[in-house]
Amino acid sequence: MSDRYEPSTFESNWRQRWKDADLFKTRENPNAPKYYGLDFFPYPSGAGLSVGHCRNYVPTDVICRMKLMQGYNVLHPMGFDAFGLPAENEAIKRKTHPAPMIKGYADTYRRQMDLIGVSYDWSRSFSSSDPSYYKWTQWIFEVLYKRGLAYQKLAAVNWDPVDKTVLADEEVVGGRAERSGALVEKKYIPQWFFRITDYAQRLIDDLDTVEWPEGIKVQQKNWIGRSEGVQFAMKVQGTGKAEGGRYDLDSTEVSTSGEPLTFEVFTTRIDTIFGMTFCVLAPEHGLLEKLLQGVDQEHRDAVAAYQLAARTLSDTDRTSTTREKTGVFTGADAINPANGEAVQIWVADYVLATYGTGAIMAVPAHDDRDFDFATKFEIPIKQVISPDAEGTAVELPFVSKDGYLVNSGEYSGLSVAESQLGLGIWIEGLGIGQRKIQYKLRDWLISRQRYWGCPIPVIHTVDGEQQLVPEDCLPVELPMVEHYEPTGDGTSPLAHIPEFVNTTDLDGRLGKRETDTMGGFACSSWYFLRFTDPFNFNQPWTEAAADYWMPVDCYVGGAEHAVMHLLYARFWTKVLYDEGLIKVKEPFQKLHNQGQVLALTPYRKAREDERLNVGEDGVLISFKEAAELPKEDITHRWARMSKSKGNVVTPEEAVESYGADALRLYLLFRAPFEADIEWENKGMSDLGRFLSRIFRFVDSQRPNYVSNWKDLLPFEELDDRARKIRRATHQAIRVVTTDIDRFAFNTYISGLMKFLNALNDLTTGEADRAFALAVSEAIDSLILLLAPGAPHSADELWNSLGHEEFTLNLEWPQFNEELAAEDAVTIAVQVNGKLRDTFELAVGADQATHEAAALALPKIQQYVEGKVIRKVVVVSGKLVNIVVS
RNA sequence: GCCCGGGUGGUGAAAUGGUAGACACAGAGGACUUAAAAUCCUUUGACUUCGGUCGUGCGGGUUCGAGUCCCGCCCCGGGCACCA
Description:
By secondary structure, this protein is of the alpha+beta class. It has 29 helices and 34 strands. The strands form nine sheets. Strands 8, 9, 10, 11, 12, 13 and 16 form a seven-stranded mixed sheet that branches. Helix 23 (about 720-740) runs antiparallel to helix 24 (about 745-760) and helix 25 runs antiparallel to helix 26. The longest helix has 22 residues, at about 720-740. Mean pLDDT is about 90; it is low at about 240-255. It binds one RNA strand through helix 7, strand 9, strand 13, helix 11 and strand 30.
């Protein structure tokens, strides 16, 4: 063996030997605890992996390898999120079919993952587009359907009337189709939804039971958007007789049938109800049709025109915050139930039809949006909240909830909190409304009018009824066809394949299959369950397998999935729990988000005729281009590694030039796991040098190596040097074990470096028997502690000492607190909190000894002389602080 | 605008309220070498009258003691964005 790290001479050999030995096959020893380590389900893109993608695979691998050595049964699988739009678009571009294409890409991913030595059990691998997998995706769809959680309803899509196609939100720019330039319309077509809103509260509550980054939990909570408020009915003035109440509804400014028209509003600020000076209905509000019958022609036309405009505007533009508020008066008034005053009813698109009731009470004095609107349309503004109980007038809008009511009848003088409760109860007592909890969360739209996805297992009968495809007829297979491109009429390409569409229903009559497919997020919402039992032909998983392996102990991936994937997977897990199919309510016990890998990327200054996108201060150029331009025209910036930026370093390049273990250690060492890495190839050679130092150390100590040190060391009389070697060893075991457990991989590696430095310092001079035994323990420990991070090198080193086993099959070293303990510590001495001196003290000395020793120091006496000692703080084993005055 | 992260030497970074800068990189000096590479050793926060003084984005506070806790700001990154 060499005395340096020469990856080309051994790394690929070890990978072959691991493969031949089936080393990574999941072991299921009875009585052993389990550990389930999982990386996010990747979509295998044609660009292949970059070293950036390895950022999460390597740390998960390190922790799984350590857990295995610690005696756990480890499940560490990998598969591919193959269905979905990215794959289909790529296949269309390449004029090929997505199935073979994605298979090829997945093979590349697998080859690259193997190349860096990640210990995946490939025997459990699958793709979400495998019929044997999506059969069960459909089966779970049916579970949801039967529980009333999957339903079809009309929903708006962006429709391009020229290209006759459905557009994604990002394909609509300024209300026009990016490609055709046509004014985009909202088209209502039936779409499938999952009723995730039923689970809103549980999705909030159970976040308390998982160990996730706090930021991700907050993002999910914000997304679900719970708010507490009051929903109540408003009556339209003059549209009915008063029911003996306090309102004068006999006015006939607006007259219709005689039935009072009402609409509901939701507010979180019921305390401001006396400040309501108008109401706003969303342009899509259902009341408008009736309401308009009773108003004059002029108002009717204005509202109709406004509604038309709202319909053609894209959601993105409509909700742009920079846009000035728009709206029209309906000509009708409503009654404020709090004080009986008439308030104008307006229509404006700043009120969303899809949230709450699609109508609001507007209180311009205490709401920014209402204030803007009232100012523009010269609607009265009435202050009803004041920062103090005296009712001081303040600059409006005053939106703080820290205040007191004024001009609010009998509620004047109460605090916001008190009056919210009181007014809520009053409204309920009046029978016109109730306190209510609203969520921003919408139902999950899963329909895609696209080919490359999991077919929805529904049959539409001639009577227009829906039937589920019976379980024994699953999966509804995606037909292999040559043409699968979007069709131009807004329907799925599947709708144009008669052999697919035409079928018989459960009663033997002609029926039509559902032709929408499920969006990719459905497929990735349960794959972690399938990994527990991936080739079960009869069930999605066996109870025993899921009960044993679930939940995922450690789930690792990018923070960009903070909401969507993680929320959907949690939702499905809860539904499956409710159905009694699994025993966990949450799928992922611990979650970790890796930082990004950034690469230095060249940009050039914009030319005079060029306009840059917002937030950009240069034009992205290739490295080739950068080499040709004058230096002063180029700036380099750190940008996320991606093929489109041309700044990618591939695992192949890294392994070829620096070695897989050097790459792995560099990824671990360069920065904390959660932090971004600024990539530098040189960093890999730095870590390669560290590996070389280990090889050199082992090589130099080989003559002293005693392989059965374990049997002999306990009986050996140790001198000071041997004791120090053992201390360094056990301290290293302690720090490495805890660092890997707490996901601190950078300090894991620096712990190894420190250990090696200590060993190099301690292994000088003559070798005796005690030394040889202590060094042998140190060598074994060093190799084993290195093994999760640099498995090729560890196996090579272990082998070079005459051993046959794979390090992965060895036991993880245990540390002994007594051996790791220092016998003397350095005590810091402070005077008034400032460090003045230090001294050595035996471990375990009492407080009086600390204090006496500190005060005896000449330097300290100088500082204390002539002053009164007020107090002496002693932290045993750490410091003495003398407070003088 | 709101919500999350983060701001520590020349650089990447460490640090359960207890000696700030561990571990590396880069720099400087030296050893080995004909020379280079590789390797090894020493040194490296700033200032200093060599006694010390100052230092973790800024300003306050709590504490015997604050990078760490609290309050108010500034800057950078990310998420949400008219959700009533």
